[in-house]
Automatic annotation (TrEMBL):
This is Alpha/beta hydrolase. Keywords: Hydrolase, Membrane, Transmembrane, Transmembrane helix. Residues 20-113 form the AB hydrolase-1 domain. The chain crosses the membrane at residues 82-102, 123-149. It comes from the Archaea. SUPFAM superfamilies: alpha/beta-Hydrolases (SSF53474). GO terms for molecular function: hydrolase activity. Pfam families: Abhydrolase_1. It comes from Methanolobus zinderi. Gene3D superfamilies: alpha/beta hydrolase.
Length: 256
């Protein structure tokens, strides 16, 4: 275990529970993007909040390697099993994790959840991959942030994620862009997940790029369901954090 790679983490423990929530931030985000969830859930659950974009530029990453590092991180903190809360792209990482390490997953909650990339999102990703070496990465990130979160009520979420992405650096940005195409089998991953692992998707009704496919494909599986927050964009965990937190809290109480 001593030489195994693991993510640095924020750890919050309370004395009255043995239940753990693992908060997995999205691409371009950081542990700080879970601020409102940490404030709320740290009163009720033990929290592990990996910082996945730190100190990773000395190692090639693929999606299975990311999952392995998450597993090592849980082992390091003596967490046998946990509830996983993912956001946006990290929902695909959580799906893959549930396939590779089902014994470590109680259930999963996906904020701004993604099940698969459709034609439009694949085209946008191809632009990022094509132009990442000739256009400033922050120009690309800002462009995609506006495509995903175009409305005025999305502006705070856009601002937070752009500020966090500025801390990534070019090398780290390219590394995570290169991971995204590896998730093209994500629908197959969902089909491979045990029926014992429940999945809740929480999305804003203004999540124009991802909600339609989330609704379409989640209906195929009895262990998946979707909650929709009205007048809310992709980053529902920030934009309407109170509603998001309450939905997740009720869900977790039902899982107890």
């Amino acid at each position: 275990m001593a030489g195994e790679r693991r993510f640095s983490c924020e750890v919050h423990q309370v004395g009255h529970t043995s239940r753990w929530l693992v908060l997995v931030h999205g691409f371009g985000g950081s542990a700080r993007t879970w601020k409102k969830q940490v404030e709320f859930f740290s009163r009720h659950y033990n929290l592990l909040v990996p910082q996945m974009h730190e100190d990773m530029d000395d190692e090639y990453l693929d999606v299975d390697k990311v999952c392995e590092i998450i597993s090592n991180t849980l082992d390091h903190h003596n967490i046998e099993k946990a509830y996983f809360v993912g956001f946006s792209f990290s929902s695909l990482i959580c799906l893959r994790f549930a396939v590779l390490y089902p014994e470590k997953v109680d259930s999963m909650i996906m904020g701004g959840g993604i099940i698969k990339f459709n034609l439009k999102t694949r085209f946008l990703l191809s632009l990022a991959i094509t132009f990442k070496k000739c256009i400033n990465y922050m120009f690309l990130y800002r462009f995609f942030a506006y495509i995903i979160m175009p409305r005025k009520n999305h502006s705070r979420s856009r601002s937070i994620f752009v500020k966090e992405a500025e801390k990534l650096g070019y090398v780290e940005f390219c590394k995570w862009v290169d991971i995204i195409p590896q998730t093209k089998q994500s629908l197959n991953w969902l089909e491979s997940i045990s029926d014992d692992i429940d999945i809740l998707y929480v999305s804003g009704n203004q999540d124009y790029l991802f909600l339609k496919d989330t609704l379409k494909y989640s209906k195929r599986f009895s262990n998946s369901r979707v909650e929709i927050i009205e007048n809310c964009g992709h980053v529902c965990s920030i934009e309407q954090h109170d509603k998001f937190n309450n939905i997740v809290f009720r869900y977790l109480n039902r899982m107890a």
